[in-house]
Amino acid sequence: MLAIALLLLSLGIAPSLQTRPPAPKACKTFPGDPDWPSPATWHAFNASVDGRLIRTVPIGSPCHNPNFNATECDIIKANWHDPAFHELSPSSIQDSLWANKSCDPFSPPDSRCIIGNYVQYTVNVSTQDHIKKTLTFAKQHNIRFVLRNTGHDYMGKSTGAGGLAIWTGNMKKTEWIPHFKSAGYCGPAVKVAAGVSVIQLYEEADARGFAVVAGACPTVGFAGGYIQGGGHSALSSKHGLAADNTLEFEVITTTGQFLTASPTQNSDLYWAISGGGGGTYGIVWSATVKVFPDEEVSGASVSFAVGPNVTRDLWWEGINFYTAQTPNYTAAGAVSYAFYSGDTFNLSPLFLPGGNKDQARKLVQPFLDKLVELGIPHNVSIDNFPGYLPAYTALFPSALFGVSTQLFGGRLLPRSLWDSPQKLAPLQDSIRNIVDAGALAFDIAIRPTLAVAGNPKNAVLPAWRAAERTFNPNLPWDDTANFATTVANQLDTITHNFDEQLRKLTPGSGAYLNEADPFEPNFKEAFYGPNYNKLLAIKDKFDPDQLLFGSTAVGGDRWAQQPDGRLCRA
Ligand SMILES: Cc1cc2nc3c(=O)[nH]c(=O)nc-3n(C[C@H](O)[C@H](O)[C@H](O)COP(=O)(O)OP(=O)(O)OC[C@H]3O[C@@H](n4cnc5c(N)ncnc54)[C@H](O)[C@@H]3O)c2cc1C
Predict the structure, then answer these.
(1) Among residues 293, 319, 336, which one ends one of the domains?
(2) Which of 102, 184, 498, 508 suits 45 as a labelling partner, its CA being 20 to 30 A distant?
(3) Does a structural domain hold residue 461?
(4) pLDDT for the residue 400
């Protein structure tokens, strides 16, 4: 006990000794259980949250009997891979892996349509009171609590069978602060409510002459899983990750307290929420982040393919040269997004904030020269943009961001692999093995070092600081495959083959907790590294009843979803 107390004291979280979590009940109450709330109880709860309780009707219902409607079903199928479609739903999730074919639009009309892995009820929250009352109700009735913003999570953390969710996605307020002042920062900032999307932020920033460190997908929720999970951005080789730019959070804890978390107030909570994962420590009501004066951007795109005069070996020679080149890009402050699979390679784009066309051309010229030398025909475009938003709009067309299009793997590749051609060669070989075995490589060259991030103190996985790439060896999603085949594909091909090859090459590195294999065998080490134990203690201090759960979140291994969907103590 003394040893544990000393450890906690050394972590600066001694007060948690007074708030040790009581042992939770073995299982959450599930629909159909005798103690599941009666309709009258749900009705009364609905009245207490201003009528904002929504009973889940699975989004795919019109594709199934007895509600089958061919026109509506066609619309659902046509929009299934568009994130905006799911975002409007109170209960849908973007990654169909987590819908578990509960009510799948691509399955025959007579196949099952159940709520399944979707939550049972959602409260469309707009006030702190709605959130607190939902927490109290979930606790009182021992119901699984789910925290959902846009439902983008690839790890399935924003849904849950038998769950009662709060949906923060409609809280869209922002407050632009010209002169934020704190001990560590004086300058422009923006306070962002829990439901603000990346594109809303970009548009508002543009109108005010600012740029914000945020992600590539327009519909991702900025203050939810994105920033709390770290959040990579086209600006990250220049300004660090999104979590590196946090100034303070307003948080509602699962015990109903409203707290400010900053480097000087509840600093342990601030540290954890800045990179230690969404849906784990509390419900973020708002995040305040630094913003940067907007500046010109240059972008380059390059593509080439296997063809009549380009053998596969030659194609790989071109890609291997690209791989060797990227440290020059990231050192210059660029982030370089490459997608390659089958027989096509797309660098789309190299994004150089603060750079002009000549500088972008200079960066990619050795790569272009090599393609010429190899006799590989290629397409190139290099452009200048007056600011972040015009560059973002041109270089990241929204069609790029489909959902349920891929099964994800992922690994952070440390810069040390680029120390010499001899060290790089095994990585190049593995990438070739992986892609030739059918992977879609989603390969981001990015350098969010502590130095560019301004030496923040936060829970971002340390492996990010040494990373040159976040590399996702993905598999194409098959809408028509059955669930067992999909899971087997994920496990056999990604978990035990693609990612395993990368793990072997990168001992001590890790993976981006938001974009990786949800079945990562050692998620604690891979997603949280040496921060794990400290994060767990902070979680238990602020979420003593363990209401917040995600299978890959900190503390997630203490609970397990049973085959019937019920969540039980592991
Ligand atoms: C198409 C696509 C493109 C993407 N592009 C990028 C990218 O460019 N860069 C990048 O870094 N990531 C990217 N991501 C990953 C993205 O950052 C994560 O999926 C992230 O978890 C989404 O957060 P959300 O709040 O929008 O989603 P949700 O699924 O609603 O929530 C994600 C997690 O955050 C928790 N959470 C949500 N709101 C809150 C809150 N208010 N307080 C506490 N916890 C909360 C949830 O419980 C859940 O655990 C992309 C994902 C997709 C699907």
Answers:
(1) 293
(2) 102
(3) yes
(4) 81
- Count up the domains in the chain and report the number: 2
Answer whether residue 16 is part of any domain. Answer: no
- H helices of 337-420, where? 357-374, 388-395
Contact 438, 475 (CB under 8 A): yes
- What is the percent of the chain with per-residue pLDDT over 70, rounded to a whole number? 96
Tell me the residue length of the chain.
570
Does residue 309 share a domain with residue 289?
no
pLDDT value at 447 more than 90: yes
Helical (H) or strand (E) element with 47 = helix 39-48
From ligand 1's centre to the CA of 154, what distance in Å? 8
Ramachandran region of residue 253, left (φ > 0), alpha (ψ -120 to 50) or beta? beta
Residue with more model confidence, 402 or 269: 269
CB within 8 Å of 246: residues ≥ 6 apart: 227, 270, 273, 274, 287, 288, 289, 458
Band (pLDDT 50/70/90 cuts) for residue 419 is very high
**pLDDT-based confidence at residue 399 (cuts at 50, 70, 90):** confident
Which residues span the domain enclosing 258? 174-293
Residues 339-398: pLDDT tens digits? 999 999 999 999 999 999 999 999 999 999 999 999 999 999 999 999 999 999 999 988
The H or E element spanning position 77 is helix 70-79
Amino acid 496 reads: H
Q: Residue 234 maps to which CATH number?
A: 3.30.465.10
- Based on the domain organization, do 322 and 424 belong to the same domain? yes
Mean pLDDT of 181-209: 97
379 and 256 fall within a common domain: no
Expressed in angstroms and rounded, the spacing between residue 340 Cα and the centre of ligand 1 is 24
Atom of ligand 1 nearest to the CA of 232: 11
Pocket of ligand 1 (CB under 6 A): 83, 94, 147-154, 157-158, 168, 194, 215-217, 220-221, 223-226, 228-229, 231-232, 278-279, 283-284, 401, 403, 514-515, 550
